[in-house]
Specification:
Layout: H1 2-29, H2 34-47, H3 52-80, H4 86-109, H5 112-132, H6 148-163, H7 168-177, H8 182-207, E1 218-219, E2 222-223, H9 224-244, H10 250-273
Antiparallel strand pairs: 1-2
Helix pairs in contact: 1-2, 1-9, 2-3, 3-5, 3-8, 3-9, 4-6, 4-8, 5-10, 7-8
Length: about 270
C-alpha cells in the first residue's frame, strides 16, 4: 500500500511538471502544449512499465482532453484581439473535422508502437523546422483552392488527433508557409485546436473503453488524474511563457526545443525497435 501511494505521489508530481512544461513551451514558442505533454506522458508510462499497447494511446487521449480547455481559453484571447480568421475556419473546419474522425478511428485500431511511430516521425519534422526554418520561407502567396486545401486540412486533423496535439504545431507552420500573417495564423490555430480536441477526446474515450492495462483513474484512453493535474499548471504557466518570450532569445529557445523533440523522437524510435 505504501508503494502504491508512493507511486501515485510520483505520478502526480510528474503530471504537474508536464503541465507546467507544456504551458511554458506554449507561451514561449507558440506551439501547442501537447507536443510537450505527450512525450512526457509517454516516458512516464514507459518508466511505470505500462503495457506498450496502451501507453501511447493514453498519452495521446489525455493530451487531447487537456487541449479542450486550453484551446477555449486561447481562442477567447485571440478573438478579442481580432486574430481569428472566421472565414478560413468555415472553409477548413469541416475538412479538419473529417481528418480528426478518420485519425481517431485509425488510432483506435492500430497497435501502440504504430501510434508512437507516427508521433516520432512528425516530431522529427517539426524539430527540423524549428531548428532550421526561416520566418520568410513561403510556398505561395495564399492558401490553395480545393481540393488541395481540403486535403491539407484533413491531413492536419488526422495527424493532430493521432499525435494528441492541438492546432498550433502543424497548422501555424502550414499557414505561414502560405503567407498568412503570424498573429492570424496563431489565433486561427487556437480555434482549430478546439475542432481537433473535442471529437478526438470523445473518440479516444470510446476506442479505449474497457481496454485492459490502462493506468488508474482512466476513462477510455483518457487518464482523468492526468487531466486534473496537467490543466492547472499548463494554464497558469502559458501566460508567463508569453511574457518571457519578449525578453528571451526565442531563436535559441526554438533550437533547444528542437533538440528536445529530436531526442524524444529518437527515444520513441528506439522503443519501437527494441
Amino acid at each position: 500500500m505504501d508503494t502504491d501511494l508512493s507511486n501515485l505521489a510520483m505520478l502526480a508530481a510528474i503530471l504537474l511538471a508536464a503541465g507546467a512544461a507544456g504551458g511554458l513551451a506554449a507561451g514561449l514558442l507558440g506551439v501547442g502544449g501537447g507536443i510537450v505533454t505527450v512525450p512526457v506522458l509517454f516516458h512516464l508510462f514507459t518508466t511505470m512499465g505500462l503495457d506498450e499497447h496502451v501507453r501511447m494511446h493514453v498519452a495521446v487521449g489525455t493530451s487531447l482532453a487537456t487541449i479542450i480547455a486550453t484551446s477555449i481559453s486561447s481562442t477567447r484571447s485571440h478573438w478579442r484581439k481580432g486574430s481569428v480568421d472566421v472565414g478560413l475556419l468555415k472553409q477548413w473546419g469541416p475538412f479538419i473535422l473529417v481528418g480528426v474522425i478518420a485519425g481517431t478511428a485509425l488510432a483506435g485500431t492500430v497497435r501502440g508502437p504504430a501510434l508512437t511511430g507516427v508521433f516520432a516521425v512528425v516530431a522529427s519534422l517539426v524539430a527540423l523546422h524549428m531548428a532550421f526554418g526561416k520566418k520568410d520561407w513561403s510556398i505561395a502567396e495564399q492558401l490553395p483552392g480545393n481540393p488541395l486545401r481540403a486535403i491539407i486540412g484533413m491531413v492536419i486533423g488526422g495527424l493532430s488527433s493521432m499525435m494528441g496535439i492541438g492546432g498550433g504545431t502543424l497548422s501555424v507552420p502550414t499557414l505561414t508557409l502560405f503567407r498568412v500573417p503570424i498573429h492570424r495564423a496563431v489565433g486561427t490555430a487556437a480555434a482549430i485546436g478546439f475542432i481537433i480536441a473535442i471529437p478526438g477526446a470523445i473518440g479516444f474515450i470510446l476506442t479505449g473503453w474497457n481496454v485492459d492495462g490502462r493506468p488508474p483513474f482512466s476513462l477510455g484512453y483518457i487518464n482523468l488524474l492526468g487531466v486534473a493535474l496537467i490543466l492547472p499548471t499548463s494554464m497558469a504557466l502559458a501566460p508567463i511563457g508569453a511574457k518571457l518570450a519578449h525578453s528571451l532569445n526565442t531563436q535559441a529557445l526554438r533550437r533547444a526545443f528542437a533538440l528536445f523533440l529530436g531526442v524524444t523522437a529518437a527515444r520513441m524510435f528506439y522503443s519501437i525497435l527494441s
